[in-house]
Specification:
Blueprint lengths: L36 H8 L14 H14 L5 E3 L2 H12 L5 E5 L4 H10 L6 E5 L4 H7 L4 E7 L11 H11 L2 E5 L4 H4 L9 E5 L13 E5 L2 H14 L5 H11 L2 H20 L6 E3 L9 H8 L6 E5 L4 H10 L4 E2 L9 E3 L11 H6 L6 E5 L5 H13 L3
Bound molecules: pyridoxal-5'-phosphate.
C-alpha cells in the first residue's frame, strides 16, 4: 500500500499489489531516478535495463516499437514524433552534405517537399523518378547517390513500384534502399524480406488507426544505421511522447482485424464502383484493369489493401456535390482511420500542382481517394451509391 509522503512536494509512491494490470501502463515521467552515479553509469553503459530521460527513450516507446518490430520482422525500431519525423531522421541520420537521393516522384507530399525544398539547403540533393520504371531510376543514379527512397504503393494513384528491381539495383550499387511502408503495412508486405535496408512508417495512419495519434517509426537492418537514426532523432528532439505511444499501442491490438476487414471492404467497394455508371475509372491494385496488376499480384498477392481511388465527372461542381452527398462519410485528407474517410487530392495533397501537372498524373477534378474502414459494407456502399446517383 501507499506510504503517505511527508510533504506534498515528495513524489508519491505508486501502489503496487500482487495482481498485474492487464492494460499497458502509461508512464509520462520525463526523468528517471537511477539511485546513484554507478546506477546511472550502468544504464548508460547498457549493463542495466532502465531509462534516463524521456527524449532518449521511455517504456511506452519501447513497448510500441517492440510490437511494430515484431510485425516487420525487425529489431531495434525507433519511435518518432510523426511519420515525417521518421523520414527526416532516416535521411538526416544516414546522409550528409554532398550526398544524393533518388526517390519516387509520387511520395507523400511532405516527403517530396523535404527532398526538393529543404534538403538542398543542407547540401543533400534529390532526383525524383517513376519508381515503377527501373530504367529511369537507374538513369537518375549518380556516383554520389547514397539512398533510394520509395513507397511501394503510391498516393493517390496507387501505382506499384518495381520493388524487386529497385532492391537489386540498390544492392548492386551499394546504395541504401529505404521503403516507406505506411500504405501497405506489414500485414500486406514486409520490406525486409524483399531487400529493404530501412523501413519507415507513419504510425498515425493504419497502425494506430483511430485518428488520435501522430507518430512515426523507423528501423534499419544494420545496427550502426539504427544508432545513427536514433542519435539524430534524440539530438533533434524528434522522438515520440509517452501518451501518443500508449494510444498507438492500444490501437495495435485490433490492427490485424481492422486491416483484414478494411481490405475486404475495399475489394467489395472497388467492384461496386467499377460497375457504377457515374464512375469513370476505378483504381485498385487488386483489379485486373490496374496498370500494375501483374506487379501488384507478384508483390502483394491478395493483400491489396484498403485504399481505393476513382474518378467521377471531372468538374469541381460534381466533386463538391459528391463529397456533400456522402453525408456520413468523413471528408478529410488522411487515411487509415477505423472508419471510411474520403479525400479529394486536387484540393488537398496535390493542390500546389497546376491542373496540367495533375492531369499528367491522371488526377482530374473528379478524382477521389477512399481510405476504406471497417463499417458494414452494405452501409458504406449504399451511402456512396446515394451520393453517386444524385450527381447530375
Ligand atoms: C502520412 C504519411 C507520412 C507522414 O506521416 P505523419 O505522421 O503525418 O507525419 C509519410 N508517408 C506516408 C506514405 C504517409 O501516408
Amino acid at each position: 500500500m501507499t506510504n503517505t509522503p511527508k510533504t506534498l512536494v515528495r513524489r508519491t509512491p505508486w501502489p503496487e499489489g500482487s495482481a498485474v494490470p492487464v492494460g499497458t501502463p502509461l508512464q509520462p515521467s520525463v526523468v528517471y531516478d537511477a539511485g546513484s552515479p554507478d546506477g546511472l553509469d550502468a544504464i548508460y553503459d547498457g549493463d542495466a535495463q532502465g531509462y534516463t530521460y524521456a527524449r532518449e527513450g521511455h517504456p511506452n516507446a519501447d513497448v510500441l516499437a517492440g510490437k511494430i518490430d515484431g510485425m516487420e520482422g525487425a529489431e531495434g525500431g525507433i519511435i518518432l514524433s510523426s511519420g515525417m519525423a521518421a523520414v527526416t531522421a532516416v535521411v538526416l541520420g544516414l546522409l550528409g552534405q554532398g550526398d544524393h537521393i533518388v526517390a519516387g516522384d509520387q511520395l507523400y507530399g511532405r516527403s517530396l517537399r523535404l527532398l526538393t525544398q529543404d534538403l538542398p539547403r543542407w547540401g543533400i540533393e534529390a532526383t525524383l523518378t517513376d519508381a515503377g520504371d527501373l530504367g529511369a531510376v537507374e538513369a537518375a543514379l549518380r556516383p554520389a547517390t547514397k539512398m533510394i527512397l520509395i513507397e511501394l504503393v503510391s498516393n493517390p494513384t496507387l501505382r506499384v513500384a518495381d520493388l524487386h528491381g529497385l532492391a537489386r539495383l540498390a544492392q548492386d550499387r551499394g546504395i541504401l534502399f529505404v521503403v516507406d511502408n505506411t500504405f501497405t503495412t506489414p500485414r500486406a508486405f514486409q520490406p525486409f524480406d524483399h531487400g529493404a535496408d530501412v523501413v519507415i512508417h507513419s504510425v498515425t495512419k493504419l497502425l494506430a488507426g483511430h485518428s488520435d495519434v501522430t507518430l512515426g517509426y523507423a528501423v534499419a537492418r544494420d545496427a550502426n544505421h539504427r544508432k545513427a537514426i536514433y542519435d539524430l532523432a534524440t539530438t533533434m528532439g524528434l522522438t515520440g511522447s509517452p501518451f501518443d505511444c500508449w494510444l498507438a499501442e492500444r490501437g495495435l491490438y485490433s490492427f490485424d482485424l481492422r486491416y483484414d476487414r478494411a481490405e475486404e471492404n475495399a475489394k467489395a467497394l472497388a467492384a461496386f464502383l467499377g460497375d457504377h455508371p457515374k464512375v469513370e475509372r476505378v483504381i485498385y491494385p487488386g483489379r485486373s484493369d490496374h496498370p500494375d496488376a501483374d506487379r501488384a499480384k507478384a508483390l502483394l498477392g491478395a493483400r491489396t489493401g484498403n485504399m481505393v481511388s476513382f474518378e467521377i465527372a471531372p468538374s469541381r461542381a460534381a466533386a463538391n456535390a459528391f463529397a456533400k452527398g456522402c453525408a456520413n462519410i468523413v471528408f478529410a485528407p488522411t487515411l487509415g482511420d477505423i472508419g471510411t474517410t474520403l479525400s479529394h487530392p486536387p484540393s488537398s495533397s496535390h493542390r500546389a500542382l497546376s491542373p496540367e501537372a495533375r492531369a499528367a498524373m491522371g488526377i482530374s477534378e473528379g478524382f477521389f481517394r477512399v481510405s476504406v474502414g471497417v463499417e458494414p459494407i452494405d452501409l458504406l456502399i449504399s451511402e456512396i451509391d446515394v451520393a453517386l446517383n444524385a450527381l447530375a
